[in-house]
Amino acid sequence: MSIKALEKAVEIAGGQSALGRLIDRDQKAIWAWINTTQKVPAEDVLKIEDALEGKVSRFELRPDVYPKPKPLDKIRIIGGQELNGELPISGAKNAALKIMCAALLTDQSLHLENMPNALRDIDSQTELLTHLGCVISSERDLMAINAKNVKDFTAPYEIVRKMRGSILVLGPLLARFGEAKVSLPGGCAIGTRPVDLHIKGLEDMGAEITLEGGYINAKAPKGLTGAKIVFPKVSVGATENLMMAATLAKGETILSNAAREPEIADLGECLIKMGAKIDGLGTDTIRIEGVKSLSGAHHSVLPDRIETGTWLIAAGMTGGTIKLKNARIEHLSSVMGLLAQSGMEIEQDGEDIIVHRNGLRLKGIDIMTDPYPGFPTDLQAQFMAMLTLAEGAAMVTETIFENRFMHVPELNRMGADITAQGNSAIIRGVKKLKGAEVMATDLRASVALVLAGLVAEGETVVNRIYHLERGYENIVEKLQGVGAQIEKF
Ligand code: EPZ
Questions:
Q1: pLDDT of residue 38
Q2: Which residues of the chain have pLDDT under 50?
Q3: Domain 75-90+303-488 sits in which CATH superfamily?
Q4: How far is the CA of 371 from the centre of ligand 1 (A)?
C-alpha cells in the first residue's frame, strides 16, 4: 500500500483518529506512519483492509515498520509572564469518561459533543470500550459510540490499571448483559481508593459478586432489582455506577447520601435523554425508576469546572486578565468566594468568565476540601500553589484522599514554605518562587507545579507530563495562547 492508498484509507475511515481507533487506537502511530512510510508491507495491507471492512476491530502496528514518535515527556517553563487573553475550556473529563460508559446501556448509538478528546484518559476509556466490542468513531470534539455488538464483558487489568474511571463499566455491563468481570483498580498515588461501595450497592440490587484473582466477578442472570441504598460515605464513582445500573433494573432505586457533583448531573441528563427515569439530580437523594431498555441520544458534555478553576488560579498567580470561554461559574461557587477573599476579581460575561487580580498581593486563606458543593479536592494542589505566594499564613486540609500532598515537597524545592502533617498543611507565603526541575505523581499535583513554574523566577522543568496529558487538553498550546513561555521537549 502506498502513502496515497493509506491517505485514502484515512479518508474512508473518516479521519486519522477514526482509522487510528480501527487499527490500534493510536493516532500518533498513524501520524508517524503517514509521515515516515512510503510502503506498507502486504501483511499489514490485509490487516487494514479487514479493519476497514469491520472484520477486526484491533491489530497492532509493527513498531519496527511504523515507529511511534518519541514521546515528549517534559515541559519547560520560563516564569514571570503575565497571562492575558482568551482560554477555551474543554469538556469535563470526569463527566465524559462516565458518559462514554453509559453507551453500554443501549444497542443504539450515543452521539457526544464537546468531548475532551485529546486526553489520555479518554483514549484509555476508548480502548476499554473497543475491547468490549463497542464501535467508536471520533473527530475533533465529537464522538459516536455504538455498543450493539458487545460480546466481551471483561475489563482487563492492563487497561483498568491505567485509569480507575474504567470501573464505571461495571454497573452498565451488569445491568444490560447480566454479567461483568472488571479488574479491581487497586490503589493509586493519591490513596488506597477502594471500590467497596460500588460492590455493596450492586449486591443490594441483587447481583452476586465474588472477588477472584484481582477481578470483580459480577452476575445478575435475572437482571438487577431496584433497592434503597444509603451510602455510608459520599462517593462520586459509586453514585454514578449505581445510577447507571438502576436505569435498567426492575422497579425503583433510591440512592441516599448520593454525591452531587455537576458531572453526575450531566451523566444523569444524558441518561434521561436515552430514556431513563431519574429524579433528584444534583441533590443527595436520587430516584431512578428502571425501564426495559434505553435508546441512543445526542448529548453535549458540560465544561470542565476543574480546568476552569485551574486557570482562575493561574490568573491570580501571574496577574493579567484572562477570559475563560464557555465556562460555568455556577459550578465553582465554593471556589469563587475564596478567590475573591484572597484578592481576585471575577465577573461573568454570558457563558464566559473574566478574571484578574486586584493589583495587590494575594492574601493567605484557609481551605478544606469537601464533596460538592464544598471545595473540590481536584483543585487543592493548584490552590496551594497559589497560597505559596500569598501574604501571611494559610492552612489547607484535605478530607477526601489520604495522600494528596505529593506536590508539597516539589513546591518546597521551588522555594515555597509548606509544612504538611497528616491531612493538613500550613503554607507561609513567600515573596517569590524559584524555577527548578520537578516531578509529580498525579494529574492535579502536576498542574500545580506548572502553575508554580509560570510565576517562578527562571526555568522550571516539569517531568512526566504523562500525568498532565491525562486530564488537560492541549495544555501547552492553551497556555502559549495567553502569553506563557512554555514548551514541550
Ligand atoms: C472521582 O473519583 C474523580 N474521578 C476524582 O478525580 C475526584 O478527585 C473524586 O471523584 C472526588 O471528587 C473521576 O471522576 C474519574 P470517590 P472517585 O468515589 O469517584 C472513598 C482527578 O484528578 N471510597 O468520590 O474515585 C475514596 O477512597 C480525579 O480528576 C470508598 O471508601 O472518588 C475516597 O476517599 C482524581 N469506597 C472517597 O471515598 C468506595 O467504594 C471519595 O471517592 C468508593 C470511594
A1: 47
A2: 25, 38, 67
A3: Enolpyruvate transferase domain (3.65.10.10)
A4: 10
